[in-house]
Design goal:
The structure is a single chain. The protein is mostly helical. Helix content is 36%, strand content 8%. The protein contains four helices and two strands. The chain starts with 7 loop residues before the first strand and ends in a 32-residue tail after the last helix.
Length: 104
């Protein structure tokens, strides 16, 4: 249980995944932007990026250690102000198939 109404389901491949609440297809782009910034959307997106072995930790302490090790693998290369960049430094935008993340 949590205070934000975030729900989870168990899947054999990904372990516990958070359900991202749906947004009406008829919503305006402004509403889509607001929706994307809600904690109830960002939280599940971040949780779903965490590897299964980290989420399966047996205790809170072991979860924190495993999460720290996972996050340490992600290069911290923020875009430089004034230069265009084709990628984001956000974990929400992380995709394992992207060559930038191939070391993870």
């Amino acid at each position: 249980p949590n205070c934000c109404g975030i729900t989870f389901k168990m899947t054999p491949r990904h372990g516990f995944v958070a359900i991202i609440p749906p947004l009406s297809k008829s919503s305006s782009s402004g509403n889509q932007t607001l929706y994307d910034r809600f904690f109830s959307v960002q939280g599940p997106k971040l949780w779903n990026k965490v590897p299964v072995d980290v989420k399966a930790a047996k205790s809170f302490e072991s979860f924190k250690i495993a999460l720290s090790k996972f996050v340490a693998l992600i290069p911290d290369n923020p875009p430089v102000s004034g230069y265009s960049c084709s990628w984001s430094n956000s974990l929400v935008d992380y995709t394992p198939s992207t060559s930038r993340w191939s070391d993870i």
